[in-house]
TrEMBL record:
InterPro entries: BetI_C, Homeodomain-like_sf, HTH-type_TetR-like_transc_reg, HTH_TetR, Tet_transcr_reg_TetR-rel_C_sf. This is TetR/AcrR family transcriptional regulator. The keyword Signal does not apply. PANTHER family: HTH-TYPE TRANSCRIPTIONAL REGULATOR RUTR, TRANSCRIPTIONAL REGULATORY PROTEIN.
Amino acid sequence: MTRLTRAEAKARTRELLLDAAARVFAQKGLAGASVDEIAEAAGYSIGAVYSNFGGKEQLFVELLKERANDRVTQATAIAADAEPAQAQRAFSRLLVEVADKDVDFAPLQAEFWLYAVRNPELMEAYAERMREPRDLLTQLVARSVPDPERAGELSAIVIALFQGLVRMRRVDPDSVPDELFGHALRWLFTGALADEEPQ
């Protein structure tokens, strides 16, 4: 059996804590979940949570950022080699996978948004953590739309579309057909590019 290095062991601990936190937060909400429950679900002591994340709120914000970064990384991989029509289908499959299989994603997004709105001191921490995945997405969008300001605006719309359609599909799958997200992206970018053309 291969022994993990200290850095590998720390990364593994962090990963297990994030996975456990996702389950506990999705079931009990941020206010209802305790550090004890998260540590126990991960198989660690409370000290492991505090030494890796500093506290429950920081753990939650880091969890959302990691999930968002994972989605942007997947989107980047899709866009790297695919033709536009293939990419649109792949983006639609990604949304369907998140909505249908990652059952914690939508509740976690909604839960922290509500918690941050009710606790304004956390709002800036939430916004700061979410800037990194949004900036990554903006870099991806900038491949199609060279205007940096327009790319930033479009990335905000793409995020809102993704989150909104995931929530809608979780509640009423028939209202969000499998290909809808890809179609919406095509409509969005076709309109944005047409808007940039000289009249």
